[in-house]
Amino acid sequence: MQDKAGSLISSKQLIFMIVGTQVATEIFALPRVVSAKAGEDAWIAVILGALVPFISLFLIERLGKRMPEMGFTQMTQALFGKIIGSFLVVIFVAYAIFFESIVVRILAEVARLYLLPKTPVAVIIFIFIFITIYIGTKGLRVIARLNELLFYIILLNLLLLILIPLGMADYTNILPVGEVGLDGLVRGALTTGFQYQGIEILLVFYTLVTKKNEVLKAGTTALAITTLLYAGVVLVCELVLGITSIQKLIWPALTLLKTPQIPVFERLEFIFLFFWMGMGVRPLLNMSFASSLSLSQLFKIDQKKYLPYFMILIGLGMYILALLPHDIFVTYKLADYAGYAFLVIGLGYPLLYHMMAFLRGKKVGESG
Amino acid sequence: MKKITGKPPTDDQAWKEDKQKIPDTKLPAALTEKMQMLKPYLEKSHDIISRPFYLEGKPPLEAVSIYINKVIDDEDLNQHILRPLMLNCKRDSIKELGSKNLIDAIYQTSITLTKISKANTLPSLVQNIFDGMTVLMFDGLEEVLVIDMHGGEFRAIDTPPAEQTMRGSREGFIERLDINIALIRRRLRDPKLVVEKTMVGRRSRTQVAVLYIEDIADPQIVTEVKKRINEIDIDGISASGFIEQFIEDNPYSIFPQVYATERPDRMEPLLLEGRIGIIVDNTPLALAVPALFVQFIQASEDYYERTLFSSYIRLMRYAALIIAIFLPAMYIALLSYQPELLPYDLLINFSKSRMAVPFPVVIEAFVMEIIIQLVIEAGLRLPNQIAQTVGVVSGIILGQAAISAKIASPSVILVISLSIICTYALPSTSMVLAVRFLRLPMMFLAATFGVFGLSCGWIIIQAHLISLDSMGVPYFAPLAPIRFGDLKDAFYRTFFWKMNQRPMSIPMQDRKRQGNTGGGSNNSAG
Amino acid sequence: MAKKWLLVFIIVVQLISLSGCWDYKDIDKLDFPAAGAYDLHQASKTADTNQEEEEQTVDLTTIIPNISENVKEPFRIETTSGLTIGNAREPKVYSDPGTYSPGVSGVIIFGEDLAASTGLKNVVESLSRAPQTPKTQEFTIAEGRGESILRVPIKDYPSMADYIEGLLRQSHQRGFIPDATLHEFKTNIAPGKNPIMPLLTIKGEKVEVAGAAIFKKGRMIGKANLNETPILMMLRGIKSTGNIPFIIKKDGKMFDKGSVDIKNSRKVKVERNGDDFTFQITIILEGSLAEHQTDKLFTKNEDLRKMIEDQIAADVTEDSKKFIKKMQEEYQVDCIDISKYALAKWRKELKDKVDEDFIGDVNIKVEVKMKLNNVGELT
User: Fold this and answer.
1) Angle between helices A349-360 and A72-80 (to 10 degrees)
2) Closest approach of C283 to chain A, Cα-based (Å)
3) Touching check for A273 and chain B: CB below 8 Å?
4) What are the tens digits of pLDDT across the range B427-465?
């Protein structure tokens, strides 16, 4: 039974983990970011943008199939040799820390704006990281199950976000369809492509899935869910707020929740944030677990025993990085770089590995 | 690893460890020598009675019966042992029966009780006496008769005080193990119901019975439970709570991981769902493992009332759980961090009622919470009649006085008492304790970080619940890992004729529960 | 052992944070305004009419409930001024020990002069920037000064704020009152759209709704009186309910007279022929007969129902045409919210010019479909 082993996940849990890594803070700003490029057709761009992570998924899955028993670190070292391999793993870990430090910073900024205006951002980030480390040390089993449970709460939350304001929709806001042209659509789609960051955890998690033949299906399902959620939120934002307003809002998805007139209780965004703040740690958890796993494999030490120390180390790294940006706009600038980094890790890595595996031929499989 | 053998507890393993205290010698034949050997063990215990008598014959056979006063049934002793042996047992006629072994002949012809065994070593003799057996020793015979005739005064079967129902059985477990097992046997006449007895406690030698249905319960879990019980090494246990604390998976957790019930009719469905029952002698509370979180929200009444109402009331109970944990914390968070969240009129009312109180909301709420917790604790210790009065007095008078003394605002008293009421809407006493405890850290979090703190608390509680195990089974099971099939008995209770499968969350061998396809006239399809 | 250290660590962190409590505030030390009114500062208006726009100051009038039991007055009304809205809150610090906590008031009143001179677009900025404000605050325009409306004494309600909020919240469901929230105002200053707001006035001792204020983007440019407002709302497609009268004349004599409770909705079609745009507005009215004052029975006069429907349709069409003419000639602003349909078809092309006298040059046709659903208990 995979539950008892505690080091494997089912393909169903993989869906939740991928969705859990993807859907976090991007969704707040997504309507603004995409509609800046794709205008009224932002929601189409979001759907098109899913191609980027899908290619990444496909490449990683093929790669995993080539060497199904090898973990990310072993695979890298087998392909590129000890030194270059270790270097590549360290880059991956650095990317994970960078990406998550931005996520945690944006979460903290949201918390600061809406909930704790005077609390120093360092304290808020510290709490996020502390929770991440606390849960992370409980192991993969707990992380996977937490992702699973929270997935349904995310669904409920986003349905709240999508359905309740829908009564104020104005359909003329998204018409005419397709006027932005191919150019705008492609640029919008590329921008959204970055927002699907998180699929790259499959590099690490592939070996941990019990049924390897279901990985592609699970990954596709996860991407479909994320795409639907993203497109839904962007569409409703456009319908209700219109893209002129969206451009002026820092987090349109949150402002959206303030618009409906509900008797007695009008502050939907607080309910949303109450659930979302806690759930914000999901990508941190998944990513920091993936990177500490890779690190422990790199140093070839007992994973169970040293995992907490790696988690603490990575948490510290995230903490320091997250405090570096001066304000939210710098953070979003950095988020753009994280998006480019995603292209390198999500698309470049698997391509590179494939090429290397092709060059090395069959030898690798045997030596592994 | 030790194993439960299923034999009667007379030659139990646990005793062997302490064997060195009593020299392991065979019993001599002569009665006086036997008495001499026993003397050091018996002379300091004045409640042990040795009653010498003679069996009629030529020459008369000298015999002694030894027993602990009031542990055995006096009537049985007189009627079924002393009377037949002294008046009817003729040594010669026994010999005539052709029995090779005199002692066999004695009990086969003259003793009209059923639970009889023999012993021939000093340790087993001594232990049998202290286990409450009646021992018959005869002159010239090395073996002694050990007769189980436990009796004496016990509490009668009574309604379970903490888990009362309107429609269920009125019987609750009592302090006698055998009766408790019988209560379950009466409800569950399945030949596959296994009852295995063992002993825990080096000195107390408490009998513990492990119950499960052989072809439903998962053998791995059964072995695990037995292993954990057998590994308990303690001088004495006085209640089933001891066992619970020794076998639970996460002793540092606030949540109960072993289900305790005092209702045999609650135990029965648990056994049918593949759980393992543990009944401890002298405790009217039976345990069941593996326990799931949702189980502590289910009450036996849920199954006796009709489906729709049961589901409604169960949903209410979940609401009560959330209110009980979060309401005071939410109150603090709203009033001191996010007041703009409240509707305007309520906001003004709150600030009007707060105006007179000199303390911050946090302190006000903490003080009230602690006072009420103490009132509850005091109420538990007091005799029933006084407890009610004290409850009313402290509830009304203290609350009123606190308001007029401007120590607390009416709203805080409302909030705290509401959360207390919701706490006691939960059917399981052990979950009530967990919730009572959990409220305080939540209030702390709300006091430091408001709604944000609550959000963090919520996720930590969740992660903690998910990380728990009960006998290796995920504790938060139908929710995480989510099992849609089991949700029909988690948040609500569906119709019995729709529960085709036993819960997936508990590992077991046989999943099929029932075969009906519909209620009422549709029933025939099964 | 590790668990023990973890526990100690958590407690220490908790205690440190408790000692911080950066955002802790006591609810009874906060001032929650029930309503706010923004006006152009009187002195700056009278002293120098040619004053530079950026130097004009704003008056902020607030109703704040008194929470102490010892004060007889249920609330206090204060006026402070500053360069901007946010700045106008500042002087409260000097006169009020409570911390002013904006963002809970349900009603914001703008003075007519403020709305007409500087426009509200930038004034509203402060409200939509603050995270604690809901986007559902009711916006309204006061004839004259907003301050004077808040200062009208009121008996039946706790304060003027409650009265106005009750008057305006979801008011389009009660009658032909076009309510507007912060959110609606913000979305309606997008290209192709223009906001409208309810207009309040003081009549004798009472505050009343006096129609609608018509905006060009953020700036108020006109008023629709109580007769025009229902037509404006029907044309604009704000779903509302209300009662409208009818008089049917036959051969110069009065044939029937009465009123109908109606619900309205609209459909808009836009067609294009080169640079000529034609909007076809269909107003759909549905309703039930409230009364008719003659003894004619529906059972006997089979065409009576048709006559009532036709009469109302004709009345509304005529008024609509009048209003559209006024709109195209006088306001030159699309206050009936139809340009968006043209934008929905040719957004790229029209985006820049839709707000520049586009509406003046288009053809607008109105058709009214009236349907009398039922006539009540009487025949």
Assistant:
1) 50
2) 18
3) yes
4) 888 899 999 999 999 998 898 888 899 999 999 999 999
